[in-house]
Amino acid sequence: MIVLSLLSLLTVKTVLVGSAVFLLVMSYLQRKKYKLPPGPPQLPIVGSYFEFRKDSRLYSVFTKLGKSFSDLFTIDLGFWHNVVVMKSADIVHEAFVEKKEIFAGRETLTWKLKVFSGGNRDIIFSDYGPVWRLQRQMALKAFRAYVASDKLETFVRSSFDEVATLIEKETEPFDIDSHFQLLIFNIVCRMAYGKSYKIDEPEFVWLKDTVDKTMGTVFGSIIPSDVIPVLKHFPIQSSLSVKQLIKELNDFQNVKLAEHKKNLNSGNLRDIMDQILLLKEEMGAESDDNAKESLTDTRIRHTLLDIFFAGTQTTVDTLKWMIMYIADNPDVQTKLHKELDALGDDISGLRHCRHKLPYSEAIQREVLRMRPPAPVAVGHQALCDTKLGAYDIPKGTVLYANIMAIHHDPKNWESPEVFKPERFINNDGSLKEVDNKIWIPFSSGKRKCVGESVGRANLMMISALFFSRFEVSFPHGQKPDFEPAMAEFTCVPKPQKIIVKKRM
Ligand code: HEM
């Protein structure tokens, strides 16, 4: 018996050591075959795992470990999870724009992301290919039509009025996070399903809570089934929660989809779900199989889920950073108030106001430069063997763009650490052309954010409504903290109190 157990232990050890040696040899051979981007010294097997344990912000560890490399470098996130990090604007442009077809893939998904994306049937995590392309085009068309209609503005105004009333009741300094969460979530619900919720309505409270829990479970941490996929078949709490949350969201969406199909009226499109259903109807019987597959019910449901998961936190975080930078820069606030006051009551058509409100637009750009809410975007995968800069990139390599580093690179920006909206304004007060090589909060190329038009229109309208009504400051003696909180893929401000006063 003892001999048997010793033998089995020896076998396990042998397998482990054997696998490690095999992987090291493979990695050595690969390095010989290709001229791969260099990397910092790293521990064998665990790579930089412990760096990420100390600081979970990918952008921050990428910046620290990439100091001695100019354009791109390789790094092991731990346990042979090698990725290439691009830190210069030129190299990101070469990959995402000049070689956009090659670098448009997505990383192979962990188990929970597969469940989340309905088996790669959303837009964010879907593989590059004809179905994804059509699904993305449909979403873009629906978003653009929606932004061009009056609906978005109506929804933003009424949601804002509700939340503004709550803000006005705050008599002490407070953290504005929950107010912005409510505001954006309600706008997104109206946009997606045309449903106008009261903020304390049970269905709204349930939906927000379920999306928040899913965000925490799916994006907040690594669960055992991600590391050992076979565990997905066992009743482990974390895997059960992921399945349950996604099932609840799918059931909810199915009800909405059935309602929308029943009441679809091409003369009165109520929301994005209607827009997508109409596009599907217009596709007709003669469309090819790819087109039909791109708009199955599962894909429509997951496109709508993308709006919740990609569109809410990014917008809330940008608004919170905006409030903080403006509270910390009274001169900027004075100029902003002046610009908004000059508009008087005429803030109609706010979504088209980029040129009517150049200073507000410059503030938005500067906030997105200083604190991009998706500072390393989402990993891209090389779809074939290729070259990038002076190096070889084998098929399957996962690459990240360090957007935060590019936005703070002194080669691109004068005094990059200073908050200065004026850098986007010409001497005559008009807006400068934005340089899309160095200003990339929405990334670039084939996988560029599909919701940019919606996100930017929301930010513009909310900031104009907010600062027309309120002024902000930090409590006397409180030092604002601009260091982002610990979060892998996002750039979130730490909780802090702010004074919001109604303007006279
Ligand atoms: C301030 C607001 C936002 C910012 C800064 C932002 C930024 C980004 C970034 C950096 C990416 C990754 C691009 C890449 O992989 O290279 C992305 C992807 C995406 N975003 Fe946004 N986003 C914002 C708002 C929104 C909104 C409002 C929506 C939906 C209405 C949205 C939907 C998406 C989708 C579906 C993708 C995946 C695109 C694809 O893989 O083809 N985003 N976003």
Automatic annotation (TrEMBL):
SUPFAM superfamilies: Cytochrome P450 (SSF48264). It is found in: Endoplasmic reticulum membrane; Microsome membrane. PROSITE patterns: CYTOCHROME_P450. GO terms for biological process: hormone biosynthetic process; progesterone metabolic process. One of its GO terms (molecular function) is lyase activity. It is a peripheral membrane protein. Its cofactor is heme. One of its GO terms (cellular component) is endoplasmic reticulum membrane. Keywords: Endoplasmic reticulum, Heme, Iron, Lyase, Membrane, Metal-binding, Microsome, Monooxygenase, Oxidoreductase, Transmembrane, Transmembrane helix. The chain crosses the membrane at residues 6-29. Heme binds at C449. Belongs to the cytochrome P450 family. This is Steroid 17-alpha-hydroxylase/17,20 lyase. It comes from Lingula anatina (Brachiopod).
